[in-house]
Amino acid sequence: MIKDNPVEKLLASAKKTKFPKTVEPMLATLVDEPFDKPGWLYEVKWDGYRAIALIKKGNPELSSRNSKSFNDKFYPIYEELKTWKKEAIIDGEIVSVNEKGMADFSSLQNWRSEADGALIYYVFDILWYDGKDTTELPLTERKELLKNILPESSNIKLSESFETSGPEFFKLAEDMSLEGIMAKKSNSLYTPGIRSKEWLKIKTEQRQEVVIGGFTKNEGTPKKFSSLLVGVFKNNKLVFTGKIGTGFTVKLQKEMMEKFEPLIIPDSPFANEPDVNQPSRFRPNPPKAIAVWLKPELICEVSYREMTNDGVMRHPSFRGLREDKKATEVVLEKETPTENVVQEKGNGIKEAFIPAAPKASRKTLLNPKEETQVKKVNGEDLKFTNLSKIYWPKEKITKRDLINYYYQAAPFILPYLKNRPQSLNRFPNGINGESFYQKNVTGKVPGWIETFPYHSSVDGDKNFLVVSNEASLLYVVSLACIEVNPWSSTVEKPDNPDWCIIDLDPDKKNTFDEVIVTAQVTKTILEAAGINSYCKTSGSTGIHIYFPLAAKYTYEESKEFARIIATKVNNELPELTSIERIVSNRNGKMYVDFLQNRPQATLAAPYSVRPKPGATVSMPLHWDEVKKGLKIADFTIKNAIERMRTHGDIFKPVLGKGINMKAALKKLEGL
Predict the structure, then answer these.
(1) pLDDT digits (tens, 9 = 90+) for 264-280
(2) Could you give all domains of the chain from N- to C-terminal order, each with its CATH number?
């Protein structure tokens, strides 16, 4: 029944219509100050891109206010909309959230992937739902409908409305450095394409969209350009509104020049050509500048202190390029006196609340489209190429997927890699192509990569690559190192391992359940010696069992202690295991390998992907998970990150307090 279904009840009076092909957004009127008046709701004015989402049968179209597609540009939002089991048209604002959890327009303007900031689509209206046109429902009913149909999501959220004091809400927006607030009549209808006085916007600072009509370059400057020459359209003519000389980084100037070059024209596009060398009271002798004119196609947003009587901005600062409207739509926004729009003052002020934008968990570094991408990591520009190259043909997993995995896994895996020399195992053509090991990186890596020297009797002095931070880890992965293989010791104490390893390496005749039995026996023996141990899948066929040494012993001492443990395991399971190094001497038995505890020996790190079918991961386990039914294939590149975030780094004790080897040996004597 309708009375039992709030959505059906809300839609009861809405007209039944076909799904619209396009929709123009409703626009707001700019006013100069906040106000109190009954019958008005207040919202945050989000500092982002207006976006309409048309969702039909799992095929959404996310577009700007001038119908430019945002499907690829803001792919996380688009991908989430694809999962919706609804047919709807919603209106909102896409923002990029910075590390403080606040919307950052400059971050959004430069956004290429989730590493640049978390995207949130704040939805504030609904125009069509389930065969019904909702534009003629009152705003309060449309908001209630949104509350009932929006799924739980970290990327798509309802933009809350508040019935409160406008001035107090505005003060909160100022205190939080928000762009401004919106005031909307609670009974307002949605009027597509109309700039309504029932929706008002009040900004906390002066901002203006402007069209770039040229740039200047001062004599003798090393910069790509010195200032932008900008304007707005009035009566179809571009009117000059000022020079913008601040708000640019060197990198941004370079990127902007690439956009400028194809737009250079010989003559000024402005109705009246500006004098770029005109002195001012603040700069009576400005440096000589040369103007370069551009087709008036690019739009940027600027903040400024005030507008002079002749229409020129004072102290403008560049905020970012905009791509969500046409240049010819950019006109000078003038604040309407609030009293001309709102004539009554209200009372009954409630305490306002401005929702803080949530911080996002680490997601992807690289976007799904561009084949070559440059990302700044730890202050270094990393260039990633050939990103669609297939590394796992059956699973269609790409180089891009692998890099994104290690980017997300970095906080978990880096403790086991940092300051450790690496043996590089490179797979330039994926798991089915030829691979090769590389130890020496002398002269083959950037200067910021740390190295560790070693001597070869054949080739003389060489250098291992050392992972020191996230940038060097991702550099290693970009070399097609599917797995990462660190030493057990660091460059500070290269002869003293931080952990000891028992590597259970099954023969083809062994089942994985037999590996599990052997792991359980190994754990029991170590416990008898007073040692807590920690295990992980190898990601291939076996299990690795670690316990901490804290760099208190040499590799030789570690190896010989591991030999004692391996021997006792073999004594317990003589029909199943072997400690023979030579394969032919094992007679098809599982190898309990203690020789991994020698200088320069390496194993795949915890959380490392392995070059195996299924893109398996060497995953740390709780000991109660090591039981019949466990499979190597349980942990892959597709589910490992979620497990890490759920369980945390359960392998961490391996880097903790080391064992007392002498006391352990004494206990082992009695076994």
Answers:
(1) 999 999 999 998 888 76
(2) 2-203 (3.30.470.30), 206-329 (2.40.50.140), 373-478 (3.90.920.10), 499-668 (3.90.920.10)
